[in-house]
Amino acid sequence: MLKINSSDLEPILEHSREDYPREACGIMKGRMSIVDGVKITEVLKVYRTKNIHPNPLRGYKMHAEDQYRVYVELDPELDLVGFYHSHPHGPPMARQRQI
């Protein structure tokens, strides 16, 4: 189960609207736990990354310096819990990292 509050979801939606028609992408950090046998991923922070894909209308590639900054420098006490990208020209899909 993915748990994300509106204060973290809204920046993702805003980023997607601002970058349209290019694909927006970013990283989510938070906590992963198991409660009563249910895997719960809680998003606590959302970080924008630059899309450096050669054709950002069709795909995304996160900028390496942005990834490094998020993984190492920002909120090191939080876990990497996922990535987002906007699918501006395709159907919405979701994947979740298993713990």
Q: Which band does the percent of strand residues land in? A: 25-35%
Number of domains: 1
Reading the helices and strands in chain order gives: EHEEHE
Intertermini distance: 11 Å
CATH topology-level name = Cytidine Deaminase, domain 2
Largest sheet: 4 strands, mixed
Tally of contiguous helical segments: 2
Radius of gyration based on Cα positions? 14 Å
The CATH superfamily is known as: Cytidine Deaminase, domain 2
Q: Tally the beta strands.
A: 4
Q: Name the shape in a single word.
A: globular
Taking pLDDT < 50 over at least 5 consecutive residues as the criterion, the unreliable ranges are none
Query: How confident overall, as mean pLDDT?
Result: 89
The CATH architecture classification is 3-Layer(aba) Sandwich
For the record, the CATH class is Alpha Beta
Structural class: alpha+beta
Instruction: Assign a percent range to the helix content.
Output: 10-25%
Would you mind describing this structure in some detail?
The structure is a single chain. The chain is an alpha+beta fold and 99 residues long. It has a single domain, classed as 3-Layer(aba) Sandwich (Cytidine Deaminase, domain 2). Helix content is 24%, strand content 32%. The longest helix has 14 residues, at 6-19.
Compact overview of the structure:
This protein is of the alpha+beta class.
Describe this protein with a few key phrases:
99 residues, alpha+beta, Cytidine Deaminase, domain 2, 4-stranded mixed β-sheet, 2 helices, globular
